[in-house]
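Entry: G-protein coupled receptors family 1 profile domain-containing protein
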Amino acid sequence: MPKPNSTSVAEFLFEGFSSFGWQHRLGLFVVFLTLYLLTLSGNAVILTIIRLDRHLHTPMYFFLSMLSISETCYTVAIIPCMLSGLLSPHQTISLQGCATQLFFYLTFGINNCFLLTAMGYDRYMAICNPLRYSVIMGKEACIQLATGSLGIGLSMAIVQVTSVFGLPFCDAFIISHFFCDVRPLLKLACTDITINEIINFFVSICVLVVPMGLVFISYVLIISTILKIASAEGRKKAFATCASHLIVVIIHYGCASIIYLKPKSQSSLGQDRLISVTYTVITPLLNPVVYSLRNQDVKDALCRAMGRKPLSSQ
């Protein structure tokens, strides 16, 4: 029950980076704005290249384009608000605005997790079952996997937002974060949150442990299949098709697991905030960077788009 003589909160105040001096905040603003613009432009380039180059009209690059769209929406939900908070440290957000931000953050964050799982399944089918790959991973199957990922994101986000904003918020209104996230909001509730913490833990297991387990199984089978390839060149080529995805998966799930699966007794909102900077600012940039620098098909497509001879044919 809410505490007696308490007032209902109509808006929240982000603590964000208010403890930093003006010069430090200005420096962070420049760095984060640069990374944000690089993320947006990088994802725009990947989407354009995939759309224009017929060599990239395959399931792998369909999922990559969906991931780029999702990452863009994910960063748009968080980073502009964070940048505004760096310039104006005492930034408020309405209850409805906070719920909206949390909804989109969770929807696209969870969508990213399951898109990476779908990409792992695609790599598994391509390497472990190549003869049936084109039949199983047809256009309809790819659309179903992408739609399913978004559907899971939407449903889990609705569960979390309904759970959190069904709580009463009384006197405490300062969010110890730079955006609306579940754990900092639960700490502000003026009632027992045991059920909400159970729901949050259950959702975290569903959207992190389950996808990680599926990706892990996929790569165990992929690696065992690759090791059976007779030629060294064949093994190298097979590993190369998975390397970019594996790098993105490790960083993405690694950061998310540290934030959301860490025991409550070891939880520090200050540490979570630093990890969240990596997860919300740096990790989305890795998708276009890794796939453009490590992926030969994308590099060749970029060369063709610029009217140059593909690197693989030189």
